[in-house]
Amino acid sequence: MIDALHHIQLAMPAGGEDDARKFYCGVLLFTETPKPAALQGRGGVWFEAGSVRVHLGVETPFAPAKKAHPGFQVTSLDAAIRHLKAHGVEPRTDTDLPDIRRVYVNDPFGNRIELLELR
């Protein structure tokens, strides 16, 4: 029934688009993609990196996702950690799994993001 994951939706507070751009484009190296004209009045912002799509939508009242999270696969977790630290983002380590090394960061709104490397 399901063919693929099309996008991930995360919540953000109203007016947070510039902070989202700074983090998702400036730190995680996503590219902003235009929202369809019919949805532009709702606020929020959309991003892509390769085949990964992330949509940030305005939620009122806003509450960050502290447990639920996307897991973004990276080629080199060590390189990703160096990149994050160079941008002032301190990743949190967690227990690695037999086939996965991983760290967590929060976006500017407190949403949990996992970065992982397959072994």
UniProtKB/TrEMBL annotation:
Domain VOC: 4-118
InterPro entries: Glyas_Bleomycin-R_OHBP_Dase, Glyas_Fos-R_dOase_dom, VOC_core
SUPFAM superfamilies hit by this protein: Glyoxalase/Bleomycin resistance protein/Dihydroxybiphenyl dioxygenase
Record keywords, A-Z: Dioxygenase, Lyase, Oxidoreductase
Pfam family, one: Glyoxalase
Gene3D superfamilies: 2,3-Dihydroxybiphenyl 1,2-Dioxygenase, domain 1 (3.10.180.10)
Presence of keyword Protease: no
Domain of life: Bacteria
Any GO molecular function: dioxygenase activity
Coiled coil location: none
Official protein name in the record: Catechol 2,3-dioxygenase-like lactoylglutathione lyase family enzyme
